[in-house]
Amino acid sequence: MTADAQLADRARTLDATDPLAAYRSRFVGHDDESVTAYLDGNSLGRPLAASVDRVRDLMLQQWGGRLIRAWDEGWLALPERIGDELGRVVLGAAPGQCVVADSTTVLLYKLARAAIAARPGRRRILVDRDNFPSDRFIVEGIAAECGLELDWLEPPHAGGVTAEAVRAAVGPDTALVLLSHVAYRSGYLADIPSITTAAHDAGALVLWDLCHSAGVLPVELDAWGVDLAAGCSYKYLNGGPGAPAWAYVRTEHQHFQQPIQGWLGSTEPFEMGQGYQPAGGIRRFASGTPPILGMTAIQDMIALIDEAGLAAVRDKSVALTEFAIEAVQAALADFGVAIASPLDAAERGGHVTIDHPAFKHVTVRLWEQGVIPDFREPDGIRLGLSPLSTSFAEVWRGIAAIRAELERA
Ligand SMILES: Cc1ncc(COP(=O)(O)O)c(C=O)c1O
Ligand SMILES: Nc1c(O)cccc1C(=O)C[C@H](N)C(=O)O
């Protein structure tokens, strides 16, 4: 058997013995033959068939039938109701600490400003140079706005941000540390508990960006002592394009003041009174009218993760990334393709990034033939493997297609 036939055979065996394989059929488009391999579930997760029904019901029964009455009949409470479910199933958070609102970018701003205000007199923010642009741009803006200084964790930090690096960089003047749980490019998985402790030992707060971890690996925000966190819901939470983000604020920090003082974060919105009085609890971190259509589909993925179990989802995620690495090493190493993600599964999230100078051009050709990974500058193809909707066969088809394009290049 050729090496290729062996990999194709292994993919078939892995799919045949995958205890979560049947979940794939619950997603719209799983049988669309024009998509040879969807490897971008960490940018935009596939829709669930259940969400099509839920959105239809929302439009016909709730919006169409109940009209404005639907706000009182459930819509106004939805950001916290979904937040509680997210906390229970995905984030390891007791009720009353999560809310769905805004975008991740806006929530990161609100939470970072709230944290800065809660550490008066401290003048520094620690941030990772390799963090996602929004995260970096937000603290750059806040530093300019509030007259603060930024400290940068510079790469390489032996693969990713470690507790030792954070401990060495924080001090009595550090107000806030802003980091990602899973790095958007490399997929490096940061150790939240030890990094949070390192920051707390210096009296700083930590804001965690969980965009690339929520829904793909177990998270225990309460148990890990996390202060503040935010993440998006259109990746592994399959909420759809532009679905609103979520924020976690630990109960003991819910007296923090957030900067976007809107009526729906105030005590009695419908009194329309003078002077902003922040609501109690997590509701004070909301600002304006909740995007009900946008947050509707998230509920189906939370329910699906609940059904499958996050530990099983992580097992499949590890198996998918292990197989991707094995296939890249076997099929692409001879072309000079380098693996930019950690090789140790314990240090890796749900995606694998591989680098090659031809990948920008290769990605265009892949998309034309229905093989859909992400390209990330300067030369990375990011294979985003969504455990409940990605098959091992898909991973192999994607990697075989990359090799075919490199052969032509
Ligand atoms: C790690 C990370 N942080 C923040 C964002 C920004 O999210 P949004 O565009 O929803 O504000 C993204 C993705 O876009 C991301 O991957
Ligand atoms: N939010 C996105 C969008 O509106 C268009 C294209 C991609 C995205 C993404 O989510 C990118 C993603 N956060 C990343 O890690 O690269």
TrEMBL record:
The modification N6-(pyridoxal phosphate)lysine is found at residue 235. GO terms for molecular function: transaminase activity. Belongs to the kynureninase family. This is Kynureninase. Pfam families: KYNU_C. It catalyses: 3-hydroxy-L-kynurenine + H2O = 3-hydroxyanthranilate + L-alanine + H(+); L-kynurenine + H2O = anthranilate + L-alanine + H(+). InterPro entries: Kynureninase, PyrdxlP-dep_Trfase, PyrdxlP-dep_Trfase_major, PyrdxlP-dep_Trfase_small. Its cofactor is pyridoxal 5'-phosphate. Keywords: Aminotransferase, Hydrolase, Pyridine nucleotide biosynthesis, Pyridoxal phosphate, Transferase. Pyridoxal 5'-phosphate binds at residues 104-105, 132-135, 209, 212, 234, 263, 289. Homodimer. Catalyzes the cleavage of L-kynurenine (L-Kyn) and L-3-hydroxykynurenine (L-3OHKyn) into anthranilic acid (AA) and 3-hydroxyanthranilic acid (3-OHAA), respectively.
